[in-house]
Each structure stands twice: as structure tokens, then as C-alpha cells.
Specification:
Elements lengths: L1 H17 L1 E7 L1 H13 L17 H15 L4 E7 L3 H10 L4 E2 L3 E2 L7 E3 L10 E7 L11 H6 L2 E4 L3 H9 L5 E4 L5 H6 L5 E5 L8 E3 L2 E5 L5 E2 L4 E2 L1 E3 L5 H18 L1 H8 L22
Parallel strand pairs: 1-2, 1-3, 7-8, 7-9
Antiparallel strand pairs: 4-13, 5-14, 6-9, 6-11, 6-12, 10-11
Helix pairs in contact: 2-3, 3-8
């Protein structure tokens, strides 16, 4: 009997040793939204196949996909979330190996030799953004050519480097960058800026509703991003290789089930309503 008890204790000991802690860093708002979304869907990652919810912005659905990918893999894991004040801080901690994974898919250009890059969550030429204005803006109703739009001032966050690059490559030269403490929506509502470059939400009228008001895209124009987006895992983290392999294993299974495609549609990344909107031709460096 004593030997049997010892063998059972050893089994539990080995089981606990086999479990890998997956640390995920990101902003507290997205982490909280994910936890509420998971609870709303029954707290079972393996059974979620509908991504509609009041919490389903793109970043939150991206974190859900990441968690599902790990759960669909063979990895024995536990999860630890770490809140960070901004994306730059989060990526530094991942690249230093202090944390294993960043919470959401990010641009291919953000990766370097210190990180593993997952299979693509968003393929090239898939991610799109629009030009948002306040609800009383005359730009919503007046005729506007693409060349006229290119002359107008477009506002983006100062650290949105890929947005700035994509706008420039699309022929936009009048780009205003705002600091982190300057709210795009607040400045739109006070008419301190004219147009904000933002993602399309999954709302029937494509409106973004904020405490500052409701904001709408200028009809018929969009920007299509050339780069793909992926999950980032640290090569310097002790379990980075195992975690990266597990994420790819899970994503492959989810892609076969159609879950990633469905999540992209239901979170607003793939918008049928702007399918025929005009996207300016991208200018390569040789053309500039």
C-alpha cells in the first residue's frame, strides 16, 4: 500500500512539472474584456465557435483566438496575465524574455531575431481601416474624390508606425500624429481634428460609439494593409519554443475548423460592407 501511495504522489509531481506557465502581457482593458467574453460564452475555450458579443472588438477576439489556439494544442499549461500600460512596453518585455507572449496579433514588421512568429492570423492585403469623422461632418454627404481625400489632414496615433507607413505609401502626405494622452475621439468631437484613421467595427452602420459621441467612416474609401499579422512569442523565454509550437499547432486545427475565418468576420476585420470601397494603389519606393 505504501508503495502504491508513493507512486501516486510521484505521478502528481510529474504532472505538475509537465505543466508550463504561459505568461501573456497586454493592456488591462483587453484582458478584462476577454475574461467577460469567456464567461459569457460558458468558460469553455474548446466549445466557442461564435465570436459575437458586446466585448468582441478585434483585440479581445484576438486574445480569445490565442487562448483557444493554446487550448487546442497538446501543451499542458497554466495562464498568467500581466497588465502593461502600452504596446511598446509589452513588446519590450516579450523580446527580453520577461513574458512569453503578447496578447494580440501584430504586424510582421514588429518581429525580430528575439521572437517567434506564429502562422498568419490575418493574411496580407486583408486588414483594412477607414477614415472616420464626427456625425455632423459634411464629409459624410458631400462628393469627395480620392485625390481630394489625400489632401485632407489625417490623424493617427504617434506610435502607429505601420498606419503611418501605409498611408504614406498610399499617397497621403498630410498626416498628423497625436500623443498617447490625446484622444482621437475627443479631438474629433471638439473639431480640433478633421479625420481619424481607424478600424472598422462590426456594427451595422460601421459607426464607432464612444463616450465623446458617434463617429462614421467617409463612404467609399478605405486603406488595405499589405502586411500580415501574427502572434509573438519570446525566444528568450525558457518555454518560448514549446509555447510557439503549441500556438501554431492549435491555429492549424482552428483554421481547418473555420474558426479563424469566422472570428475575423465577426470581429469586423473582414467587412463585406466595404468590400467594394476604393483603396488607393500603393506606391512602392521605386515609384516615389
Amino acid at each position: 500500500m505504501k508503495a502504491w501511495i508513493i507512486s501516486i504522489l510521484c505521478l502528481f509531481s510529474f504532472s505538475s512539472l509537465a505543466s508550463i506557465e504561459v505568461s501573456i502581457i497586454g493592456d488591462q482593458g483587453t484582458i478584462s474584456n476577454y475574461q467577460q467574453l469567456l464567461e459569457l460564452k460558458g468558460n469553455n475555450l474548446g466549445t466557442i465557435d461564435d465570436y459575437h458579443s458586446p466585448y468582441s472588438d478585434r483585440a479581445t477576439v484576438s486574445l480569445l483566438l490565442l487562448m483557444q489556439a493554446i487550448s487546442f494544442s497538446d501543451l499542458d499549461f497554466t495562464i498568467e496575465f500581466k497588465a502593461s500600460p502600452n504596446t511598446g512596453r509589452s513588446l519590450r518585455e516579450v523580446k527580453q524574455g520577461d513574458v512569453a507572449v503578447y496578447q494580440a496579433d501584430i504586424w510582421e514588421s514588429d518581429f525580430d531575431d528575439s521572437t517567434y512568429k506564429s502562422v498568419a492570423i490575418i493574411a496580407p492585403n486583408t486588414f483594412e481601416k477607414g477614415f472616420y469623422v464626427s456625425s455632423n461632418s459634411p464629409l459624410l454627404t458631400q462628393p469627395l474624390s480620392l485625390e481630394q481625400l489625400k489632401e485632407l489632414p489625417i490623424s493617427v496615433g504617434k506610435t502607429w508606425h505601420q498606419d503611418i507607413a501605409q498611408l504614406e505609401q498610399s499617397g497621403f502626405a498630410n498626416i498628423n500624429t497625436l500623443n498617447r494622452n490625446q484622444s482621437l475621439f475627443g479631438m474629433l468631437s471638439k473639431e480640433r481634428i478633421q479625420i481619424a484613421f481607424l478600424e472598422f467595427p462590426n456594427n451595422p452602420d460601421l459607426a464607432i460609439h464612444d463616450s465623446y459621441g458617434s463617429f462614421y467612416p467617409i463612404p467609399n474609401y478605405k486603406i488595405k494593409f499589405q502586411q500580415s499579422r501574427h502572434f509573438m512569442v519570446s525566444k528568450k523565454h525558457p518555454y518560448g519554443a514549446e509555447i510557439a509550437q503549441a500556438i501554431d499547432q492549435g491555429l492549424t486545427k482552428m483554421a481547418r475548423l473555420g474558426l479563424i475565418e469566422k472570428a475575423m468576420r465577426q470581429s469586423g476585420v473582414k467587412q463585406e460592407r466595404v468590400k467594394h470601397w476604393q483603396a488607393p494603389e500603393v506606391q512602392t519606393p521605386e515609384q516615389n
